[in-house]
Amino acid sequence: MQVTDLYVSAPGKAILHGEHAVVHGKVALAVSLNLRTYLRLKADTFGQVCINLPNIDTFLSWDLSQLKQLVTYFHGKRDEVQCLDAELVRRLREFIGVSNGSLDTCSMATLSFLYLYLSLFGSGELPSLTLTVWSELPTGAGLGSSAAYSVCLAAALLCASGAIPPPLKEWEHTARWCQEELELINSWAFQGEMIIHGNPSGVDNAVGTWGGMLRFLAGKIIPLSRVPLLRILLTNTKVPRSTKVLVAGVKDKINKFPSIMVPVLDSVDAISCTCEKVLSEMTCEPITGEHYNILEELIDINQHHLNVMGVGHPALDRLCQVTLAKGLHSKLTGAGGGGCGITLLRPETDSLMAQSTVQELKDCGFDCWETSIGGPGVQQHSAISVKEEILEILNYY
Ligand SMILES: Nc1ncnc2c1ncn2[C@@H]1O[C@H](COP(=O)(O)OP(=O)(O)OP(=O)(O)O)[C@@H](O)[C@H]1O
Ligand SMILES: C[C@@](O)(CCO)CC(=O)[O-]
Ligand SMILES: [Mg+2]
Predict the structure, then answer these.
(1) EC number(s) of the enzyme (predicted)?
(2) In CATH, 6-223+374-396 is 3.30.230.10
(3) Could you say which ligand is closest to the alpha carbon of residue 12?
(4) Would residue 204 show up in a list of annotated catalytic residues for this protein?
(5) pLDDT truncated to tens, each residue of the chain (397 aa)?
(6) Are strands 367-371 and 231-236 parallel, antiparallel or unpaired?
(7) Ligand 3 ion: Cβ-proximal residues, 5 Å cutoff
């Protein structure tokens, strides 16, 4: 089977409110970032499948004959995805020699690639291809790197399998898929997330697929089209952590102390809803200091709740203290336990104040930068629309 070469990209995300609570059926508000993961899929004739994942130092290849043995039992349909095929996951774990509890970066990325590849091609002829992924996102830091990776894999492999068409016309630089096709990409990306996360809510892959700002509740995705322009500082504490472990830890706490933890989750839900209401007011009436005061208080309350859930970290406390000394409010974003935090800048925060805050956070050993939010969701690119330095990496392999 011959596949067509293509480039795709998907954005990372920041969760404004609702991380962890969203896994338990509460509202989350999330927004796409201007940092993206890029994927190049290249057709080959060597009878092999190769993946190059330079961000995580992973370069692997398999003969098609090896992979064919894994799909002898396979009867799956690529347009019907509900839950993970446990037998395929078991075979793949055995094939790459990884145990059920493994959190190894390389194994998780490999497992989710092979799972999607075999699920989408397993009922027909397996194509020979090389897939290279490069991301501007820090890996495992709370900015949805796993979801951006899974969304890129799903879009590229669905296209290569013929389940969805490549949307790019000859004269275009970038193009997006239609709603129905995006839903299919999102549902396959969710499978990839299930392999990496264990029990994802689906909010991260939804942002990677649709981009912009979303309200997410129990799998229901509502794009928020009218949102004010927010200035946000992103800080990466560089403390490594695993989303899978943190999500499992919160679940254990809820099971152990339901009467204590359920009200915390309800309160986070109310924070997301209040934040959504304030953001909407800010688009239809003059923005006042009081709007910002409320947004800041919501950030503080939620950060305390996240500490109660057990997903804080001394480095995140430090972020909150340093920014509060400058009159700015921060909370962790994503799974916490280290990783990244967001700081809301007020309209009157001048660039000198922003710069000195960034410098103080860098002096703590953190990475810190002002970010723009609301980038487009998954898209196909022509080669010339991919930034030169990224194209160079993707074409190197
Ligand atoms: N650029 C990449 N190349 C290959 N694998 C990646 C890449 N980015 C992420 N991954 C996979 O995703 C895993 C990290 O996912 P994890 O969910 O723990 O962090 P995150 O998605 O960055 O944070 P969060 O889920 O809190 O937003 C890595 O271990 C790796 O398997
Ligand atoms: C911690 C969590 O709520 C967000 C991770 O970005 C997990 C999830 O929603 O899948
Ligand atoms: Mg993730």
Answers:
(1) 2.7.1.36
(2) yes
(3) 1
(4) yes
(5) 667 899 999 999 999 999 999 999 999 999 999 999 999 999 988 899 999 999 999 999 999 999 998 886 655 566 656 688 888 999 999 999 987 777 789 999 999 999 999 999 987 889 999 999 999 999 999 999 999 999 999 999 999 999 999 999 999 999 999 999 999 999 999 999 999 988 899 999 999 999 999 999 999 999 998 888 899 999 999 999 999 999 999 999 999 999 999 999 999 999 999 999 999 999 998 999 999 999 999 999 999 999 999 999 999 999 999 999 999 999 999 999 999 999 999 999 999 999 999 999 999 999 999 988 888 999 999 999 999 999 999 999 8
(6) antiparallel
(7) 146, 243
User: Burial of 174 by CB count in 10 Å (0-12 exposed, 13-18 middle, 19+ buried)?
Assistant: middle
Number of H-type helices and E-type strands within the chain: 12, 13
Beta bridge partners of 330: 343
Q: How far is the CA of 148 from the centre of ligand 3 (A)?
A: 8
If one residue of 190, 216, 247 were mutated to test the ligand 2 pocket, choosing by the most ligand atoms within 8 A of its CB, it would be 247
Q: How many CB atoms lie within 10 A of CB 180?
A: 8
CB half-sphere exposure, 238, CA atoms < 13 A:
7
How many whole angstroms separate alpha carbon 285 and alpha carbon 263?
32
List the 231-236 sheet strands across, edge first: 329-332, 340-345, 231-236, 367-371
Provide CATH code, domain 227-371.
3.30.70.890
Is residue 200 lining ligand 2, measured as CB closer than 6 Å? yes
Quickly list DSSP for 362-383: HHTT-EEEEE-B--B-SEEE-G
- Whether 272 is catalytic is no
Compute the distance from residue 243 Cα to the ligand 3 centre, in Å: 6
